[in-house]
Amino acid sequence: MNKIPLGLVVSAALVLWFFNEKKHPNELPTTIADWRNLFDLDDPYNNKAGAKWCLLEELFQKRYGVKQWRSNDIRSQTPWPDDPRLPKPNGFNLLSHVETDLCISRWPRWCPNSGAQHMARTSWGCDVMVRVVTSGGVGENHREILRYLNRAPDILLSSNHVLPMLEEMVFEDISFGVFPRVEADLCDVFRDTFKNSVEDALYMIMEALEGIVYLHEHRIAHQDLFLENVVIHWHPESLVKRAVGRPRVWIIDFEDAVMFPEGTKVEDMKVAKFPRPLDQCGRPQPPEVYKPEPYCPFKLDVWQFSNTLRSFESGFDEVSQVLADMNKDDPEERITAAQALDRLGTFVREQPPSSLHKAFPGFT
């Protein structure tokens, strides 16, 4: 029997490895817009998105220990049948102490709203969101800001409310951020579905403001700081069952963010143009972004964050006034995030706890 030369075997193995590492690069979307557009309601069985993401399964799992969830259809991703329904304890994935059975039943299902995102589980048992950060040369600024915010020791600071990027995965010119899965955004706090008290809401608002102050102190403006981009792990729902602990509040989605170089004078921290076409925002914006003059992006953040909150009926004039002062049309009259945090903090400290432990009507 003829023996195959060892060198030939090694060469063949290298060729196979190279093919597997580089497999189908031309079949992946080339831009972030292309990735997003994989989410197509006219493709209910998710064939289009599933076909693209499955090309990355082996790479993610072998190199990074990240296993994608199974795509059942356009609106449903779940863990694989042979995987546990729930993650392992990891400090990020948390369930509410209220209606825990309902939380458990809902956890192993995720409804995507973009083709640039996919649910997965790490080798150490944390359920995570995998998100396309850069593709086709777009998104480099987003990635640099994420890297900056995730530096040690800053990412460990209690005042840093940026949702951590646990891993950065790379394939060709495409980079993917891996972020802990979270269950709700700040809009949900005010829905009738959840029995959060005025105290619950105020503490979450103050946590978010603490995170905004941190960003601004580090010369970073978010520029899309609506409540959907402020997230929490679980709802306190103190009106049902009093909880001692409070949920951690995180800020996400820095795609439109801007970071000024160290040493830039405050008066020079201006942006000449809004990061996306105003007619495609889908949300109201303050008057200054419609003008030809450069605007202050930090004042923009304050307006965006407070725009929905201004309808929050706490029952306290002092709270309503702070929110109104954050949302003034004239940016020169608008208070800063630090001023808002200081005023709300002073108000809460001066109130008897029982006066805040009450329901609120919600949004008008």
Automatic annotation (TrEMBL):
Signal peptide (UniProt feature, chain positions): 1-25
Keywords: Signal
Source organism, top-level taxon: Eukaryota
Sequence ranges assigned to domain Protein kinase in this UniProt record: 1-364
SUPFAM superfamilies, sorted: Protein kinase-like (PK-like)
UniProt-listed InterPro entries: Kinase-like_dom_sf, Prot_kinase_dom
GO molecular function: ATP binding; protein kinase activity
Residues in coiled coil: none
Name assigned to this protein: Protein kinase domain-containing protein
Annotated organism of origin: Panaeolus cyanescens
